[in-house]
Each structure stands twice: as structure tokens, then as C-alpha cells.
Amino acid sequence: MTLVLGIETSCDETGVALVADGARILSSEVASQIAVHAEFGGVVPEIASRQHILCISQLVRKALADVGCGQEEVSAIAVTNGPGLMGSLLVGVCFAKALAYAWRTPFVPVHHIEGHIFSAFLSGDPPVFPFLTLVVSGGHTCLIWCERPHEYRFLGTTRDDAVGECFDKVARLLELPYPGGPSIQRAAESGNPETCDFPRAMTQTETLDFSFSGLKTAVLYRLREGGISREDVAASFQAAAVDTLFLKTRQAVEQTGARRLVLAGGVAANRLLRTRITGELGIPVSMPPFELCVDNGAMIAAAGYSRYKHGFLGDTRTRPHPGLRLA
Questions:
Q1: CA distance 71 to 80
Q2: Within its chain, how far is the Cα of 160 from the centroid?
Q3: Could you report the per-residue pLDDT of 8-65, keeping only the tens digit for each?
Q4: How does DSSP assign 113-165, residue by residue?
Q5: Residue 279 in contact with residue 309, Cβ under 8 Å?
Q6: DSSP reduced 3-state for 8
């Protein structure tokens, strides 16, 4: 058995997990900072990094205690080294490098998006390469062709706001609690999605890029007009955002001939998106369970296991990179 310790600190969740053979979660701990950042309506980078410092060592101890194993049984230590908030990344990378040095254990840097891709391998229906991936979160909205492990080609990405970022900003306009995704989903349940005809940007073009800034602005202007319920706006916005994601993904499937899709990232927990993608796309879809859609250590451990097996290791010179590209 190959046991990998995964550490994720790219933004505002401290995730630590122990995963066996890249597929079986033995322990997964996530310390959320939602309550800390809620009063600001978004993540404050300096506060986020300090919160990681406060809990990371305790989470590692708890993960080991949950499994009942010692450091000598850990085959590798994987950590997110980008992209993300620089202060948060520094905490995770420096901690993981120090731990790897002290334990004399291989150190494996992992790209955050690759972690989301590999979260699907922790589901009951893991994908087989090659496949198409839609990653949707607060910081990323992208379509990626995954030819084989660690060999990727970007097909399209957002030209402005990520879809999760758009959810957060619209929730703020609607005076709904942070984070915006769950709040808008709850409000939309009692709203009419056909009340507002919000734009589906770039869905009539051949490019596979996304744009959500116009959708956010359309919501702002409609709210200024007044005479509409918050629930109807939330439902109409959610319908437009999900429709955009679905149409661009279907376009990517047609262009690539993909036979399977991986749906991952925080916004992959949206029920309407899951229903549209699984029910209308026409190909099998692999998705992580709801609790693995948000940032977590298990997905980093799963990706780290594959990188470890393929010989992609880091060392003490490895640095965090907030704008790291997925090669």
C-alpha cells in the first residue's frame, strides 16, 4: 500500500488527508474559514494565511491518529504549490517541505487544478484517460483535455470572472450570506428561473472560452430597476450561469469527441449543474462526492500519488507560485 499525505492551503480551507493508492481515503480533515471571512463578504488573504498556521499541524496529527499510523508508513507528502494566495501557499509548502525533510520522505508539489481533476478518482466511478474536464470554482472556470496522467491541454477558460467568483458577487448584490454558491442555490429553490432573461455570454461563438462579468452586470442593472423578488433574481441568475457552463461543455464534447467528462471544483456541488450535465450531455460523467468538491487534502493526495508514481518530485528548492500554470 502506498500512503500519501496530502496538504491543501491554496485559499481559505486547510485540508489534510491520508489516501491509500491514490483512490481510498483513510482520513480527511478540512478546517473551513467561512465564518472568519463571512463578515467581509470574501476571503481576506492575510487572515487566511494566519488561520492556516493556527491549525495545520493539529490537522496532520489528527489525520495520523485517525488512521493509527506513524510517519514511517507515509510514502510521500504532497502539497499544493499553486495557483492560489501567496501567503496561504507559503504556509502549506513550507510546512510540507519541513515535514518531508524531517521524516526523510519524498516531497511532491501538486497544481491545484490537477488536484481537482484527480478528485474524480476518489469517486465510485473513476475516469479512464483520455477525458474532458470542466473545472468550476471560485478562482477557475476552464475546459481541459486530459490526454494521459499529467499531460493536459487547455481548451477554454474564463476571460474575466470565474463562475464561482460571479456567484459570490451576485450573492453580495442580493444581500445573501457568503459563500454565494450555496446561498444562491437555496434562494433559487423558491424563485422562478424564467423571470429574467439574463445573458449567456459567448455561447454562440466557436471559442470555448467563458465570460461572466456581463452576467453579473446584468443582475446589477435589473436590481436597480426594482419590482422583483430576490428569489426570482437568484433563480434566473443560476439558470443563466449553469446554462452557459452546459452549452460550452457540450460544444467542447462535440469538438473533441470526448467519451467521458470529469466535473470538478466547488461549483460542481451545484445541484442544477449536476442535473444538466449528467442528464443532458449524453456521455458518462465522473464527479467527486459533494464534500470533495471544495478544496481538500484528499484530492491533493490523489494527484500526488500519481505524480509520485510517475517520478514527478520536488525538493527543498520548490517554491509556491500564485500564478502557476498547468503544464
A1: 20
A2: 17
A3: 999 999 999 999 999 999 999 999 999 999 888 889 999 999 999 999 999 999 999 9
A4: HHHHHHGGGGSSS---SSEEEEEESSS-EEEEEEEETTEEEEEEEBSS--HHH
A5: no
A6: strand
Q: Which of 110, 113, 106 is nearest to 138 (CA)?
A: 113
Q: Is 99 helix (H, G, I), strand (E, B) or coil?
A: helix
Beta bridge partners of 139: none
Contact at 8 Å (CB) between 210 and 201? yes
Contacts with 26 (C-beta within 8 Å, 6 or more apart), sequence order: 3, 17, 18, 19, 20, 66, 67
> Which grid cell is 145?
483535455
In terms of Cβ atoms closer than 10 Å to its own Cβ (0-12, 13-18, 19+), residue 310 is: exposed
Using CA atoms, how far apart are residues 46 and 211, in angstroms rounded to an integer?
29
How far apart are the two ends of the chain, measured CA to CA in Å? 29
- The C-alpha atoms of residue 48 and residue 89 are separated, in whole angstroms, by 10
- Residues forming a β-bridge with 17: 6, 28
Domains of the chain: 3-118+292-309 (3.30.420.40), 129-287 (3.30.420.40)
pTM higher than the cut 0.85: yes
Q: Which cell numbers hold the place of 221?
A: 442593472
63's CB contacts (< 8 A; 6+ apart) are: 5, 16, 17, 18, 27, 28, 29, 297
